[in-house]
Amino acid sequence: MSIATQSTEPGLILALSKGRIFDDTLPLLASAGISVLENPETSRKLILATNDPGVRVLIVRATDVPTYVQYGAADFGVAGKDVLLEHGGEGLYQPVDLNIAACRMSVAVNAGFDYESAVRQGARLRVATKFVNTARQHFASKGVHVDLIKLYGSMELAPLVGLSDAIVDVVSTGNTLRANNLVEVEKIMEISSRLVVNQAALKLKRARLQPIIEAFERASKTQG
Ligand code: ADP
Ligand code: PRP
Ligand code: MG
Predict the structure, then answer these.
(1) Residue nearest to atom 3 of ligand 1 (CA)
(2) CA-based, 20 to 30 A from 6: which of 13, 76, 83, 168?
(3) So where does this one cross the membrane (predicted)?
């Protein structure tokens, strides 16, 4: 069945990204009685069947999850708060903090760079990040002038090669920062992943969605 036939076959479509979000969502799906029949790490398929013929899973890039849900190409999805803040959340209902993929958004600099002094002296900082909206808002709220450089990954490299004075990125264990001789100088916010639901789907498919949302909510209380 193609997605184009969705209107006559009101199945549910869940958007997930490969890796930690997919892996951490599996137990939540299991709590709703749903198991995904294929492994996205080994299959090249982008639409995965589940044991429930009424539920399918789309495999998309993490930053694309809100877009698929916003436009209704997926009825619901799981995305990090970092990604949702960059997207803006338009058209999305966010009923549950799933407490998965927990990390923090931080500012980091080269170990030898005196960030506090630079800020105190009103220096203009070059900041490399994937999270330009969050970074812009953070530095504006502190009254720090920054030039933002948009990157798509490996942010930790930027200060090492003189591309930027600082980075804004997610940190979990701190291993990546340590391995690259960077230090975390400011925590911007705690991050976890959220269930997001298309607002129209929430009304039209509530009977099917609600039990899954409730199962996710119950199961996520035991995650950490
Ligand atoms: P991407 O390919 O976009 O980097 P990830 O699977 O790495 O996708 O990240 C998905 C989400 O998981 C991010 O939006 C963030 O909320 C969270 N995340 C990213 N890195 C980590 C980490 N090291 N530990 C825990 N959660 C993380
Ligand atoms: C993320 C993030 C950091 C790292 C932080 O990268 O962009 O580089 O995790 O985690 P740590 O503090 O535990 O080291 P990820 O593993 O997702 O790699 P990628 O996004 O570059 O593929
Ligand atoms: Mg990543």
Answers:
(1) 62
(2) 83
(3) none
Phi, psi of 156 (to 5 degrees): -60, -20
pLDDT band, residue 2 (cuts 50/70/90): very low
Nearest protein CA to atom 22 of ligand 2, as residue: 153
CA distance 82 to 218: 23
DSSP state of 64: G
With a 6 Å cutoff on the Cβ, whether 169 touches ligand 2 is yes
Residue 69: which residues within 8 A CB-CB, separation 6 or more?
Answer: 15, 75, 76, 77, 79, 91, 92, 196, 197, 198
Q: The whole model's pTM is what? A: 0.95
Is 65 in a helix, a strand, or coil?
Answer: helix
198 C-alpha vs ligand 1 centroid, how far in Å? 22
Name residues whose C-beta falls within 8 Å of residue 8's C-beta, 6 or more positions apart in sequence. none
In this predicted structure, what is the pLDDT of residue 1?
42
Which of these, 182, 136, 140, lies nearest to 159 by C-alpha position? 182
